[in-house]
Amino acid sequence: MHWFRDKLGDLPYRIHKPEGTIFLWLWLEGLPISSQTLYERLKTRGVLIVPGYNFFVGMDDSWRHKHECIRVSYAQDADTVQRGVKIIAGEVARAYQS
């Protein structure tokens, strides 16, 4: 969590309280692109996340929150996770700037 806090800085995000899992839910409030688009951008850079809308099955598609969340696994070694967080933060910042 502290790596995301450090890298995301003042961007509008929240981290859902982790409850003993191997992943974090990151809510990127007001994300100007969909979590699917973010996934596609990150995939080209070698980082895989899960777009949040996959977990909101049957809910109204117009609910923005479902398109602003991503699930990020941290079940890797620390160096790999830190590199991934840095790349995620960079792509998120780029999305908010465009």
Overview of this protein structure:
The structure is a single chain. The protein has 98 residues and is α+β, with helices and mostly antiparallel strands. The protein has one domain: Aspartate Aminotransferase, domain 1, CATH 3.90.1150. Helix content is 42%, strand content 14%. It has four helices and four strands, in the order αββαβαβα. It has a four-stranded antiparallel beta sheet with strand order 1-2-4-3. It is globular. The N and C termini lie far apart (26 Å).
List strands and helices in order, with pairings:
Layout: H1 2-8, E1 14-15, E2 23-27, H2 35-44, E3 50-51, H3 65-68, E4 69-73, H4 78-97
Antiparallel strand pairs: 1-2, 2-4, 3-4
Task: Give a short synopsis of this structure.
The protein is α+β, with helices and mostly antiparallel strands and 98 residues long.
What is the succession of H and E elements?
HEEHEHEH
Estimate the strand proportion. Answer: 5-15%
**Tally of separate domains:** 1
Per CATH, the superfamily is: Aspartate Aminotransferase, domain 1
Radius of gyration: 13 Å
Give me the count of strands. 4
- How far apart, in Å, are the first and last alpha carbons? 26 Å
**Count of helices?**
4
Which short descriptors sum up this protein?
Aspartate Aminotransferase, domain 1; globular; 98 residues; 14% strand; alpha+beta
